[in-house]
Amino acid sequence: GQLGFEPHLRGWLRASVMGLDLSNLRGMAKESGVTLNRGTLELGVGARFHDDGGMRINSTIAFRDLNLTEPEGGVLQRLLKLPASTNTVIFLLRDHTGTISFSFGLDIPPEQKVSTRRITSLAITKISELIALAVLKSPLRVGAGIAGIVGIGPGEEEPEDPILIAFEPGTTRLTEDSRSAFEALIERMQDESDLTLTLEHEIGTADLEPVETRATPRQDDCRAIAEHLRLRQRRILEERATVVERARAYLVAGRAEESGQARKQLRAIDREIGNIARELDQVLAILRRGADRRKTRRTQLGCVALGRMRIEELARRMRAAKVQPDRIRYLRPRYADPEIEDGGIVSLQPGRRMDAERPTEGEVPEGTKPKE
Q1: DSSP states along 89-120
Q2: Rounded to whole angstroms, how far apart are CA atoms 81 and 102?
């Protein structure tokens, strides 16, 4: 930062904390009745001191892989004035990567006395407001319950048991039994025009090792991958230069159609250059000093990506079978510690579309083929 102390405090400063392992605070948390299992904290704070004596504080807080519990009405729930139990609020606030993050600013006018206690009190009040707003906006907000998630309202029939589609560890390949079950489900979707599905992914224990291997290759493998990407980068840059010259020549010759095709090819090449640059950055990040501290995080993100690909694979198969897209709902994959021993699953929860009329017996729904 940069500070001046005469005739009054002025200037700015920034501070950050990266990857603080919260499990080191288990003892302190236990004294307050909180069971803190794991999690990391990333904190960024910036302060600017104004000439009139006031100040502005901007802060970003991110909890990654946070796992803690406390009894109903515990110290955190009281301190932050949470609208539900701490355990419920943590679940609702997590994004698809398992991260809980807040960004906020505080303006402290010159007439207020600045103290650590005062700033802490204002920050807690602000975080409490942000949590209440985030919970209110959550698609799984308190009060909706599981029935709301699967589309069951008051007075409606109980949902069917979900169909579980299993995958081979670390892949998007369905197991043999699941292929048969999924094909039967597609036939049912074709026969029942009001049938809907809600898809949700759950990672399996057997997925972790292959995902971790892909997310964090060995150092030697990373160097080989980086060299391969650099070679691709050089070749595509050479190709781009050739296409640029060709596009200019077509433009000078007045050959508009060929010039347009060359420009289209240039756009595709530029997208490829961007993709290679991102891949190279990811590989080099693994080789940087201290990268091992983010190994768990990379694995979790890889599990989320695998879940997304598995859901997309099932969606692709349903589209190929002419199942209408508006009958399928997807819950965004998020990381949670696996409870399944084998490869992961996608749970398909059947429901009923209220705006569709169920066909009478013997009637063939429009857009479907009768069974042979």
Answers
A1: HHHHH--TTSEEEEEEEEEE-TTSPP-HHHHH
A2: 16
- Identify residue 339 by its one-letter amino acid code: E
Can you give the pTM of this predicted structure?
0.52
Long-range contacts (CB closer than 8 Å, 24 or more residues apart) made by 265-274: 266/240, 269/236, 269/239, 269/240, 269/243, 270/240, 272/236, 273/233, 273/236, 273/237, 273/240
Residues forming beta bridges with residue 138, ordered by sequence position: none
pLDDT tens digits, 36-45: 888 888 888 8
Strand order in the sheet with 195-202: 163-166, 345-352, 195-202, 328-330
The residue type of 147 is A
* Cα gap 342→168, rounded to integer Å: 8
Q: 69: how many CB neighbours lie within 10 A of its CB? A: 14
Q: Round to whole Å and give the CA distance between 330 and 314.
A: 11
Band the pLDDT of 286: cuts 50, 70, 90: confident
Nearest to 83 by CA among 140, 125, 135: 135
DSSP secondary structure, 338-372, as one string: --BSSS-EEEEEEEE-TTSPPPPTTPPPTT-PPP-
Segment 61-77 mean pLDDT: 86
pLDDT class of 149 with cuts at 50, 70, 90: very low
Residues listed for the chain: 372
Q: What does the alpha-carbon distance between residue 271 and residue 70 come to, in Å, rounded to a whole number?
A: 48
How far apart (Å, rounded) are the C-alpha atoms in residues 39 and 30?
Answer: 15
Are 320 and 182 in contact by the 8 Å Cβ rule? The answer is no
Whole-number Å distance between alpha carbons of 304 and 203: 8
Contact indicator for 323, 186 with CB cutoff of 8 Å: yes
Rg for the chain (alpha carbons), in Å? 27
- For residues 47-56, one letter each, b for 16 or more C-beta atoms within 10 angstroms of the residue's C-beta and e for the rest, the string is bebeeeeebe
| Strands lying side by side in the sheet with 99-108 | 2-4, 10-21, 35-49, 55-69, 99-108
- Region 3-21: what's the mean pLDDT? 76
- What token pair was written down for 226? 């980086």
The CA distance from 336 to 60, in Å, is: 24
Mean pLDDT of 327-355: 84
Q: What is the pLDDT of residues 187-206, one digit of tens each?
A: 999 898 888 888 999 999 99
Phi-psi region of 53 (alpha: psi -120 to 50; beta: other; left: phi over 0): left
